[in-house]
Design goal:
The protein is of the alpha/beta class. It is built from 13 helices and ten strands. The chain starts with a strand and ends in a 14-residue tail after the last helix.
């Protein structure tokens, strides 16, 4: 598994929710796979900063100690206009040279643009600031998209767009299986899923997509053929496939399998069921077939997710 070292540059009055949406998907990948993923908080003046809700965070390292990293996240705050012209802020531009990939989140793109890093590039930021940003930085192609990638620089707006960006980043770096898994952790609580049925899952997307996913969730133990799902959803097989590829970036068969494997991992991690029973509850004929499918999709054994070890 590819290691990832991240530095997070936080500015005064940053959003707690946005920071969580950037970090939690990475935390899920780290915890579920054991990947070497770490991050450190950095601030412009090496002092503690307060979020927009008053939460106080102290830096883990000084700006000078922030060495080279795989990922630098620049998280702007409400005072971005004043802070971007502060000498301490401008000195933070040196951190960009030490990062392979940069994310400008919320008003983070404003800081990147003020440092001259977005000239001739495409970018976005919080929707409330788009027009002002476009006027202030005419050399930047300002887009209203949820997130934008231009080379090694990614930008996004608020919390939900930060989540979308990070899932896309995980998909590119670790594969769509782990990206799906990270995203699904925020759709339901695995430890409470038992017995709740499909009502505990609240996927986003079109009504047709939600209907199909609901049908899949209700038939995890005895998986349906895609033809049967399409009939129940009043869609043609072709239309169903097109919806999944367009909205989720994968065919319905693959999504269905990922749903079943994610369910299996939840059961292994949060219950004492033996693996043969888990396999049956997730539509697999045996523990061996489940283990093989799980390892192929996630690159680790399903046994590694069990907190107490009796598997068979």
């Amino acid at each position: 598994m590819t290691p990832l070292k991240a530095n997070i540059l936080l500015f005064e009055k940053f959003s707690n929710m946005l920071l969580a949406c950037l970090l939690e998907p990475l935390r899920v990948v780290r915890d579920q796979t054991g990947a070497d993923i770490s991050w450190s908080i950095v601030t412009p003046n090496n002092n503690a900063v307060r979020s927009s809700s008053g939460l106080r965070l102290s830096p883990d390292i000084t700006r000078a100690e922030a060495g080279s990293c795989d990922l630098l996240m620049v998280v702007g705050g409400d005072d971005f206009r004043q802070n971007s012209s502060d000498p301490a802020s401008r000195r933070c531009a040196a951190l960009i040279k030490r990062a392979k990939t940069v994310i400008g989140a919320d008003t983070g793109a404003w800081f990147l643009a003020s440092w001259g890093l977005l000239e001739g590039r495409r970018a976005t930021l919080h929707w409330q600031t788009l027009a002002e940003f476009a006027e202030a930085f005419p050399g930047v192609e300002t887009l209203p998209d949820r997130f934008v990638r231009d080379g090694s620089i990614w930008t996004c707006g608020g919390a939900s767009t930060a989540m979308d960006l990070m899932i896309a980043f995980i998909s590119e770096r670790y594969g769509d299986a782990l990206a799906h898994d990270a995203a699904s952790m925020f759709l339901h609580d695995g430890s409470r899923f038992e017995g709740l049925g499909s009502g505990s899952m609240q996927p986003k997307g079109s009504q047709n997509l939600r209907r199909c996913i609901s049908i899949m969730a209700e038939n995890v133990e005895t998986p349906l053929q895609i033809e049967d799902i399409s009939k129940r959803a009043n869609l043609s097989v072709r239309s169903l496939s097109r919806i999944f590829v367009k909205e989720l970036g994968m065919p319905p068969q693959r999504y269905y399998q990922l749903m079943r494997l994610s369910r299996a991992r939840d059961l292994v991690a949060h219950t004492d069921l033996v693996l043969n029973e888990v396999a049956m509850r997730c539509g697999y004929s045996s523990a061996q077939s489940l283990s093989k499918a799980f390892s192929r999709q996630f690159g680790v054994s399903i046994g590694s997710t069990r907190k107490h070890k009796q598997m068979w």
